[in-house]
Amino acid sequence: MERLQKVMAEAGVASRRASEKLIAAGHVAVNGKIVTQQGVKVTKADQVTVDGVPIKHEPLKYYLLNKPRGVISSAHDEKGRRTVVDILKEDGIEERIYPVGRLDYDTTGILLLTNDGDLANKLMHPKFEVQKTYVAKVKGVITNAEMKQLRLGVMVDGRKTKEARVKLLEVADNHQSSRVRLTIHEGRYHQVKRMLKAVNHPVMKLHRETYDSLNLAGLPSGGQWRELRPNEVKKLKKLV
């Protein structure tokens, strides 16, 4: 027997956390009976439906997207804005995929999408510390002392960030802005923006270059995507 939210995630309905919310909100039924409590276990013989639609086990799929600006990192948006899932659906992808984590509306770069709820849940869990690299254009010229602060950790919401790697890439001719590369192992809300704001350099533009060993080689433009290779999926699973 498996927990209901795990079965839903593995069927590509949503991540485990999102599946738990669907259960709590009364969207899920087991053998025709609405289930709202967490921890219910089901077998393969049980029929699970979401809003009356039986879940089905789809082949596991893994996609890598170069997210453009102005797109929501979600499977659905209540305001009707374009989402990262819409981009792939427009190109014929039919699986019920969803993004692994989020990039802000105005942030560009590498983003994973999958219907493998178990892997997605693990990759998003803080204990696995997946390495991510960002390039930020910030106001002003960041100093060596400020970069040292970022490397050692800065206070965000009363909690110190973990050690990071930081490198100054470029200073604008007018010295009004600079570009910095920042590698972190955490995934706190708006973390990179808040870290740089903590050293008085608000972010003007933000791009995520890498996610663990994955990069955007071959996907130079926002909105382009590809399916992950088997060895890349294997590396991600080994990571967690």
Structure description:
- The protein is α+β, with helices and mostly antiparallel strands and 240 residues long.
- The protein folds into three domains: 2-54, Roll (Structural Genomics Hypothetical 15.5 Kd Protein In mrcA-pckA Intergenic Region, Chain A), CATH 3.10.290.10; 62-126 and 217-239, Alpha-Beta Plaits; 131-211, Alpha-Beta Plaits (2-Layer Sandwich).
- Helices cover 24% and strands 29% of the residues.
- It contains seven helices and 17 strands.
- It has helices spanning 4-10, 16-24, 84-90, 117-124, 144-152, 191-198, 230-239, and strands spanning 2-3, 28-30, 33-34, 41-42, 48-50, 53-54, 62-67, 98-99, 108-114, 132-139, 155-156, 159-160, 165-171, 177-184, 203-211, 214-215, 225-227.
- The strands form four sheets. Strands 7, 8, 9, 10, 13, 14, 15, 16 and 17 form a nine-stranded mixed beta sheet that branches. The chain has a four-stranded antiparallel beta sheet with strand order 3-2-5-6. It has a two-stranded antiparallel ribbon with strand order 1-4.
- Strand 2 and strand 3 form a beta hairpin.
- The chain is elongated.
- The two termini are 23 Å apart.
- The mean pLDDT is 93.
